[in-house]
Amino acid sequence: PGFTVEVVPELDSTNSELMRRARSGRADPVLLVAQRQTAGRGRLGRVWHAEAGTALTFSLGLPLAPADWSGLSLAVGVALAESLHPRIRLKWPNDLWLHGRKLAGILIETASTGAEPGGARYAVIGAGINLAPPSAEGLATPPAWLGELLPQVQPGQVLLQLAAPLVEALLLFERAGFAAFRARFDDRDALRGNAIVLSDGTAGTAAGTNEQGALLVHTAGAVKTVTSSEVSVRPA
Ligand code: BTN
Fold it and tell me: Where are the transmembrane segments (predicted)?
C-alpha cells in the first residue's frame, strides 16, 4: 500500500502528532519525519532527546489488524536492523544496539480511530536513530551512532533504505505475527546467553524469546517469562 511522506522542520514529537491526528479521525498511512523534536518521547515515559541534525526521528502511522499484537516491537526492530547493517544487534524489547551501545530506540503506540472494523487500530511506530555522535550527558553508557558503520550517512538515504522493508515487515506481522520474525530476532539477539538484571531486581541469563516475543530468563532453578513492556533489562 502507498503512504505519504511528510518532512517537517520541527514538531514536539512525531508520535504525539500522529496520535493526535488518529484521535481526530485521520487514519491514513503516513511516514512523518521531523528534523527536530522539542518533546521527543521514549518508552516508560522517558524523554528522548537528540540535538538537531544528529538523529533521524520519524513515525510511521497506519491501520493494522494483527490477530495478536505481541512481539510487534521486536518485528520492527528486526526490520530496521536488517535494513541498516548486518552488525546491528537487537536488545529486547525494542532497542537497536551497536557494539554494546544503544543506536536507536523504538516507541510504538496505538489509537482507536473509531473508523476501523473490529480488531484494527491505528499503529504509530516511532523510531529515533542516532546518525552522528549524540550527547551522552547523564547516560551510563555513551550511545552509538550509525556514522560509525556508514561514514557520511545522510538521513534521507537512511529513510529510503528502511521505509519499504519496514512497511513490508508490518504487513507480514499483520498476517503471520511474531512467529515470522522469531528466528530473525534470534540471529541478532544481543542479550542471549548474557547475565542480565530486570528492573524488578531479578537476575539471570537471557535465553531468547518465546513464540509471542516474551523474553526468557534463566534464573536460579526456573525459567522466567518476561512479557511486560513495563520491565527494563540491563546487562549485569
Ligand atoms: C526509547 O528508546 O525509549 C524509544 C525512543 C523513541 C524515539 C522516537 S523519535 C521519533 C518518535 N517520536 C517520539 O517522540 N519518539 C519516537
Answer: none
Pocket test for ligand 1, best of 6, 13, 32 (most atoms within 8 A of CB): 13
Among residues 15, 8, 11, 72, the alpha carbon closest in space to that of 38 is found at: 11
Residue 25 and residue 123 share a domain: yes
d(CA 8, CA 174): 29
Range of the structural domain that residue 45 is part of:
4-188
C-alpha–C-alpha distance, residues 187 and 44, integer Å? 26
Query: Is residue 36 lining ligand 1, measured as CB closer than 6 Å?
Result: no
Give the Cα separation of 193 and 61 in Å (integer). Answer: 35
Residues 13 and 79 in one domain: yes
Q: Which pTM was predicted? A: 0.94
Pairwise pLDDT comparison (99 vs 231), residue with the higher score? 99
Q: How far is the CA of 223 from the centre of ligand 1 (A)?
A: 31
User: Quick check: is 41 catalytic?
Assistant: no
Instruction: Give CA angle at 88 (31, 63), nearest 5°.
Output: 25
Clarify whether residues 95 and 210 are in a common domain. no
> How does the average pLDDT of the chain come out, rounded?
93
Which residue type, as a one-letter code, is found at position 16?
S
Q: How remote is the CA of residue 38 from the centroid of ligand 1, in Å?
A: 12
d(CA 45, CA 169): 26
Q: Is 48 in the pocket of ligand 1 (CB under 6 A)?
A: yes
Catalytic residue selected from 23, 43, 101, 224: 43
Q: In this structure, are 69 and 46 located in the same domain?
A: yes
